[in-house]
TrEMBL record:
Keywords: ATP-binding, Cell cycle, Cell division, Nucleotide-binding, Transport. SMART domains: AAA (SM00382). It comes from Flavobacterium dankookense. GO terms for biological process: cell division. Pfam families: ABC_tran. GO terms for molecular function: ATP binding; ATP hydrolysis activity; transmembrane transporter activity. PANTHER family: CELL DIVISION ATP-BINDING PROTEIN FTSE, IMPORT ATP-BINDING PROTEIN. This is Cell division ATP-binding protein FtsE.
Protein backbone atom coordinates (compact mmCIF):
# COMPACT_ATOMS: atom_id res chain seq x y z
CA UNK A 1 0.00 0.00 0.00
CA UNK A 2 1.36 3.44 -0.92
CA UNK A 3 2.76 5.58 1.84
CA UNK A 4 0.90 8.78 2.78
CA UNK A 5 3.11 11.82 2.16
CA UNK A 6 0.52 14.50 3.00
CA UNK A 7 -2.39 14.34 5.44
CA UNK A 8 -4.70 17.23 6.38
CA UNK A 9 -7.65 16.77 8.78
CA UNK A 10 -10.20 19.47 9.59
CA UNK A 11 -7.68 22.14 8.62
CA UNK A 12 -8.48 25.84 8.45
CA UNK A 13 -5.96 28.04 6.63
CA UNK A 14 -5.67 31.66 7.68
CA UNK A 15 -3.85 34.65 6.24
CA UNK A 16 -3.72 37.78 8.42
CA UNK A 17 -6.50 36.34 10.64
CA UNK A 18 -8.76 35.90 7.62
CA UNK A 19 -10.11 32.44 6.83
CA UNK A 20 -8.89 31.43 3.37
CA UNK A 21 -9.85 27.74 3.36
CA UNK A 22 -11.81 25.79 5.96
CA UNK A 23 -12.58 22.13 6.67
CA UNK A 24 -9.73 20.90 4.48
CA UNK A 25 -9.45 17.11 4.55
CA UNK A 26 -6.91 15.57 2.22
CA UNK A 27 -4.65 12.55 1.91
CA UNK A 28 -1.98 12.33 -0.79
CA UNK A 29 -0.13 9.07 -1.42
CA UNK A 30 3.46 8.63 -2.55
CA UNK A 31 3.74 8.95 -6.34
CA UNK A 32 0.49 10.87 -6.96
CA UNK A 33 0.20 13.85 -9.31
CA UNK A 34 -2.30 16.34 -7.96
CA UNK A 35 -3.57 19.60 -9.47
CA UNK A 36 -4.91 22.45 -7.34
CA UNK A 37 -7.09 24.84 -9.35
CA UNK A 38 -9.28 27.84 -8.67
CA UNK A 39 -9.68 31.51 -9.50
CA UNK A 40 -7.18 34.09 -8.28
CA UNK A 41 -7.72 34.75 -4.59
CA UNK A 42 -9.47 31.45 -3.80
CA UNK A 43 -6.58 30.06 -1.76
CA UNK A 44 -4.27 28.09 -4.09
CA UNK A 45 -1.11 29.90 -3.04
CA UNK A 46 -2.09 29.99 0.64
CA UNK A 47 -2.65 26.24 0.47
CA UNK A 48 0.80 25.70 -1.07
CA UNK A 49 2.51 28.06 1.39
CA UNK A 50 1.01 26.13 4.29
CA UNK A 51 2.54 22.92 2.94
CA UNK A 52 6.09 24.31 2.89
CA UNK A 53 5.86 26.19 6.16
CA UNK A 54 5.53 29.73 4.87
CA UNK A 55 2.10 30.07 6.51
CA UNK A 56 1.69 28.52 9.97
CA UNK A 57 -0.98 25.88 10.44
CA UNK A 58 -2.92 26.78 13.59
CA UNK A 59 -6.15 24.82 13.28
CA UNK A 60 -6.66 21.15 12.51
CA UNK A 61 -4.12 18.39 11.97
CA UNK A 62 -1.52 18.33 9.22
CA UNK A 63 1.60 16.36 8.32
CA UNK A 64 3.82 16.34 5.23
CA UNK A 65 6.84 14.08 4.59
CA UNK A 66 6.97 13.22 8.27
CA UNK A 67 6.76 16.78 9.63
CA UNK A 68 3.89 17.89 11.86
CA UNK A 69 2.75 21.19 10.34
CA UNK A 70 0.96 22.32 13.50
CA UNK A 71 4.05 21.85 15.69
CA UNK A 72 6.54 22.96 13.03
CA UNK A 73 9.19 25.25 14.54
CA UNK A 74 11.24 27.89 12.71
CA UNK A 75 14.31 25.69 13.17
CA UNK A 76 12.61 22.75 11.46
CA UNK A 77 11.52 24.65 8.32
CA UNK A 78 14.91 24.33 6.52
CA UNK A 79 14.85 20.56 7.14
CA UNK A 80 11.28 20.33 5.84
CA UNK A 81 12.30 22.18 2.68
CA UNK A 82 15.11 19.72 2.03
CA UNK A 83 12.45 17.02 1.69
CA UNK A 84 10.19 19.22 -0.45
CA UNK A 85 11.21 20.68 -3.80
CA UNK A 86 9.54 24.01 -4.57
CA UNK A 87 9.04 25.41 -8.09
CA UNK A 88 7.75 28.97 -8.40
CA UNK A 89 6.07 30.83 -11.27
CA UNK A 90 8.87 33.42 -11.50
CA UNK A 91 11.78 30.91 -11.42
CA UNK A 92 13.67 32.77 -8.62
CA UNK A 93 17.13 32.09 -10.05
CA UNK A 94 20.02 34.21 -8.77
CA UNK A 95 20.68 36.60 -11.68
CA UNK A 96 24.39 37.12 -11.00
CA UNK A 97 25.30 33.41 -11.02
CA UNK A 98 25.48 30.83 -13.77
CA UNK A 99 23.12 27.86 -13.88
CA UNK A 100 25.80 25.69 -12.28
CA UNK A 101 26.50 28.29 -9.59
CA UNK A 102 22.77 28.56 -8.82
CA UNK A 103 22.76 24.82 -8.15
CA UNK A 104 25.99 24.98 -6.15
CA UNK A 105 24.55 27.71 -3.93
CA UNK A 106 21.63 25.47 -2.95
CA UNK A 107 23.81 22.45 -2.21
CA UNK A 108 26.23 24.44 -0.05
CA UNK A 109 23.32 26.05 1.77
CA UNK A 110 21.89 22.62 2.58
CA UNK A 111 25.10 21.17 3.95
CA UNK A 112 26.90 19.54 1.03
CA UNK A 113 30.71 19.69 1.31
CA UNK A 114 32.44 17.47 -1.25
CA UNK A 115 33.12 19.26 -4.55
CA UNK A 116 33.01 16.06 -6.64
CA UNK A 117 29.74 14.96 -5.07
CA UNK A 118 28.22 18.39 -5.74
CA UNK A 119 29.32 18.45 -9.37
CA UNK A 120 28.01 14.93 -9.92
CA UNK A 121 24.63 15.81 -8.39
CA UNK A 122 24.32 19.05 -10.36
CA UNK A 123 25.20 17.32 -13.63
CA UNK A 124 22.65 14.60 -12.87
CA UNK A 125 19.68 16.90 -12.19
CA UNK A 126 20.49 19.21 -15.12
CA UNK A 127 20.71 16.23 -17.44
CA UNK A 128 17.35 14.95 -16.17
CA UNK A 129 15.64 18.15 -17.40
CA UNK A 130 17.70 18.49 -20.59
CA UNK A 131 19.74 21.47 -19.39
CA UNK A 132 23.24 20.04 -18.80
CA UNK A 133 24.69 21.84 -21.82
CA UNK A 134 23.46 25.17 -20.36
CA UNK A 135 25.36 24.86 -17.07
CA UNK A 136 27.70 27.78 -17.78
CA UNK A 137 24.92 30.11 -19.01
CA UNK A 138 23.59 33.03 -16.98
CA UNK A 139 19.84 33.13 -16.30
CA UNK A 140 19.31 36.15 -18.61
CA UNK A 141 20.73 34.07 -21.48
CA UNK A 142 17.95 31.52 -21.13
CA UNK A 143 14.36 31.53 -22.35
CA UNK A 144 11.53 31.36 -19.84
CA UNK A 145 11.06 27.66 -20.46
CA UNK A 146 14.76 26.99 -20.01
CA UNK A 147 14.80 28.97 -16.75
CA UNK A 148 11.87 26.93 -15.46
CA UNK A 149 13.65 23.69 -16.36
CA UNK A 150 16.62 24.91 -14.33
CA UNK A 151 14.27 25.78 -11.46
CA UNK A 152 12.84 22.25 -11.61
CA UNK A 153 16.37 20.81 -11.59
CA UNK A 154 17.15 22.95 -8.54
CA UNK A 155 14.07 21.52 -6.80
CA UNK A 156 15.44 18.00 -7.36
CA UNK A 157 18.87 18.61 -5.82
CA UNK A 158 18.15 17.12 -2.40
CA UNK A 159 16.06 14.21 -3.72
CA UNK A 160 12.76 15.53 -2.33
CA UNK A 161 9.85 13.22 -1.63
CA UNK A 162 7.36 15.84 -2.83
CA UNK A 163 7.56 18.66 -5.36
CA UNK A 164 5.26 21.65 -4.87
CA UNK A 165 4.87 23.58 -8.12
CA UNK A 166 3.06 26.91 -7.71
CA UNK A 167 1.85 28.06 -11.16
CA UNK A 168 5.04 26.71 -12.82
CA UNK A 169 3.74 27.49 -16.33
CA UNK A 170 2.14 30.84 -15.43
CA UNK A 171 4.77 32.91 -17.27
CA UNK A 172 5.16 30.59 -20.25
CA UNK A 173 3.56 30.33 -23.67
CA UNK A 174 1.38 27.27 -24.43
CA UNK A 175 4.04 25.23 -26.27
CA UNK A 176 6.68 25.87 -23.60
CA UNK A 177 4.11 25.02 -20.92
CA UNK A 178 3.62 21.61 -22.53
CA UNK A 179 7.39 21.06 -22.58
CA UNK A 180 7.65 21.91 -18.88
CA UNK A 181 4.70 19.62 -18.10
CA UNK A 182 6.45 16.79 -19.93
CA UNK A 183 9.43 17.30 -17.62
CA UNK A 184 7.21 17.27 -14.53
CA UNK A 185 5.35 14.15 -15.69
CA UNK A 186 8.66 12.39 -16.31
CA UNK A 187 9.71 13.23 -12.74
CA UNK A 188 6.36 11.98 -11.45
CA UNK A 189 6.75 8.75 -13.45
CA UNK A 190 10.03 8.17 -11.63
CA UNK A 191 8.06 7.97 -8.37
CA UNK A 192 8.00 11.49 -6.95
CA UNK A 193 4.79 13.07 -5.70
CA UNK A 194 3.89 16.36 -7.39
CA UNK A 195 1.30 18.89 -6.21
CA UNK A 196 0.80 21.62 -8.79
CA UNK A 197 -1.27 24.78 -8.46
CA UNK A 198 -2.40 26.06 -11.85
CA UNK A 199 -5.05 28.08 -13.65
CA UNK A 200 -4.17 26.51 -17.03
CA UNK A 201 -7.15 24.25 -17.72
CA UNK A 202 -5.84 23.37 -21.19
CA UNK A 203 -2.85 21.69 -19.55
CA UNK A 204 -5.11 19.75 -17.21
CA UNK A 205 -7.10 18.46 -20.16
CA UNK A 206 -3.90 17.45 -21.96
CA UNK A 207 -2.33 15.86 -18.88
CA UNK A 208 -5.34 14.66 -16.84
CA UNK A 209 -4.80 13.77 -13.20
CA UNK A 210 -6.53 14.06 -9.82
CA UNK A 211 -7.74 17.64 -9.41
CA UNK A 212 -8.72 19.70 -6.37
CA UNK A 213 -10.59 23.00 -6.68
CA UNK A 214 -10.48 25.97 -4.32
CA UNK A 215 -13.84 27.76 -4.21
CA UNK A 216 -15.98 29.46 -1.55
CA UNK A 217 -13.36 28.95 1.17
CA UNK A 218 -13.28 25.20 0.59
CA UNK A 219 -11.18 22.76 -1.40
CA UNK A 220 -12.74 19.68 -3.01
CA UNK A 221 -11.99 17.08 -5.64
CA UNK A 222 -13.55 17.61 -9.07
CA UNK A 223 -14.07 15.13 -11.87
CA UNK A 224 -12.05 15.92 -14.98
CA UNK A 225 -14.87 16.99 -17.30
CA UNK A 226 -16.15 19.69 -14.93
CA UNK A 227 -12.92 21.60 -14.24
Amino acid sequence: MSETVLSLKNVTIYQSNKVILSQVNLEVKHGEFLYVIGKTGTGKSSFMKTLYGDLPLTQGEGAIVGFNLVKLSEDEIPFLRRKIGIVFQDFQLLPDRSVFENMLFVLKATGWKDANDMKSKIDSVLESVGMLSFASKMPHQLSGGEQQRVAIARALLNDPEVILADEPTGNLDPQTSVEVMNVLKKINDSGRTIIMATHDYALIMKFPSKTLKCEDNTIFEVVQKTV
